[in-house]
Design a protein that fits this description.
By secondary structure, the chain is α/β, with parallel strands linked by helices. The protein is 35% helix and 20% strand. The radius of gyration is 19 Å and the shape is globular.
């Protein structure tokens, strides 16, 4: 029940109406029996600074930031945690001592399902499709895992070069190579870990894949193919991958784990009901 003492959490974005974060967070809060509510806040870019002032005024405990605010919010915060500085993006903000503190739990969310696998990451070549904001968390995650190298593939050479150069001042030591899309046939046979960070395959492009089916046959034996998209499940990208016998991972676990990491920060708890968060999303997405 909402009462006069209910504490506020939420997610800001534009648009944000599609977000599944309220579902999983409110399920977890209910399971814990806490008097909190997590709400979606549609904030247009020009209103971001005003929104933070308003959140401070009404005592918002913390919030997630999604597109288009993950980078724009950085200069408005009092402090940025090292992982968010390294990634160059903030997805989680908490209010402490009248100050907004920003961090990034996307990296933790990305690597969570990979850490369950028995792998020597020091021998792993990661190939990342796309060079947008999501790719930044993936590169940081692959570096934290200890991957031998990270190859980022994109279509625009200027943007690829800017992406590569942006890591030069990062506290993370990133062994990063960039390639244009037509180089994929030459490098895919080295890809022990192949990650799609592009929106290709997401609604309404659900019949599309960023890779042609024939290319998956060139993946090394035992490769991992990871799509950050979580609906539809599986995407065409993962369907094609599964025909070659690789390990396939979709984006649902990343969504759950980044959310759980954020909830631990806001509630100052070491554990939260991750299973409840996951089951709530699975029921919403797959069991209609």
């Amino acid at each position: 029940m909402i009462t006069g003492t209910t504490k506020l959490l939420g997610v800001i974005g534009h648009p944000v109406e599609h977000s599944l974060s309220p579902l999983m967070h409110n399920a977890a809060l209910a399971k814990l029996g806490l008097n909190y509510v997590y709400l979606p806040f549609p904030i247009e870019p020009q209103n971001l600074a005003k929104a933070l002032d308003g959140f401070a005024a009404i005592g918002v405990v913390g919030f997630n930031a999604t597109i288009p605010h993950k980078q724009a919010i950085i200069p408005l915060l009092s402090e940025i945690e090292p992982i968010a500085q390294a990634v160059g993006a903030v997805n989680t903000v908490v209010r402490k001592n009248h100050r907004w503190i920003g961090t990034n739990t996307d990296v933790e969310g990305f690597i969570a399902p990979l850490q369950l696998l028995d792998r020597d990451w020091s021998q792993t070549v990661a190939v990342v499709l796309g060079n947008g904001g999501a790719a930044r968390a993936v590169v940081a995650g692959c570096t934290q895992l200890g991957c031998a190298s990270v190859d980022v593939v994109g279509r625009n050479l200027q943007k690829l070069e800017e992406f590569r150069d942006s890591w030069q001042d990062s506290p993370l030591v990133v062994n990063l190579q960039i390639h244009q899309w037509d180089a994929l046939p030459k490098i895919i046979d080295q890809a022990n870990l192949l990650i799609n960070t592009t929106p290709i395959g997401m609604y309404p492009q659900i019949e599309n894949s960023p890779l042609e089916p024939a290319l998956f046959a060139h993946l090394p034996k035992g490769a991992i193919v990871y799509d950050l998209i979580y609906t539809p499940s599986p995407t065409k990208f993962l369907q094609y991958a599964q025909t070659t016998g690789v390990i396939a991972i979709d984006g649902l676990e990343m969504l759950v784990q980044q959310g759980a990491a954020a909830l631990k920060i806001w509630l100052q708890r070491e554990t939260v009901p991750v299973d409840v968060m996951r089951q709530t999303l699975q029921q919403q997405l797959y069991q209609k």
